[in-house]
């Protein structure tokens, strides 16, 4: 048997044979949505579609809802969800391909999630987001609350307007 040396990325946990070649998208230095405290839910975009023979309409890329100052809408907005835009503004929109590249995005409103540990923190936030759904909360807000508190807030929201939200407990 011969000795084998591997290097493990501290942000995603992947192992490599050579150090310093991996451009990890989970690194906080890239200032992207994955490590941002203002990151909201993932929004699935629309693919490009053909509108006429030979002409294509530009699609909307997959991205995250952003809860930063740049994307904050008027609190009296018609959404009734604390004033957050349903989709990120053009200034804040970062698509899925940009996130996956591991290249710096350098959002000016970026703020690291407290206690960020890479992919582990992202998974923790998304599991809490599942409990809180349909509440629109940032990553920082989700991590600061207990699962029981999120479930209670979710229940109150659904009970406040059962015609709009339906009854998820029936299924």
Q: What is the distance, rounded to the nearest whole angstrom, between the alpha carbons of the first and last residues?
A: 56 Å
Order of helices and strands: EEEEEEHHHHH
What's the number of helices? 5
Shape: globular
Rounded mean pLDDT score: 74
Portion of residues in helices? Answer: 25-40%
Count of β-strands: 6
- Low-confidence segments: 74-91
Oligomerization category of the chains in this entry: single chain
| Residues in β-strands, percent | 5-15%
**Order of the strands making up the biggest sheet:** 1-2
Domain unit count: 1
Largest sheet: 2 strands, antiparallel
Q: Work out the radius of gyration.
A: 19 Å
Structural class: alpha+beta
Helices and strands in order:
Blueprint lengths: L6 E2 L6 E2 L22 E5 L5 E4 L2 E3 L5 E4 L29 H6 L17 H14 L6 H6 L2 H14 L1 H4 L6
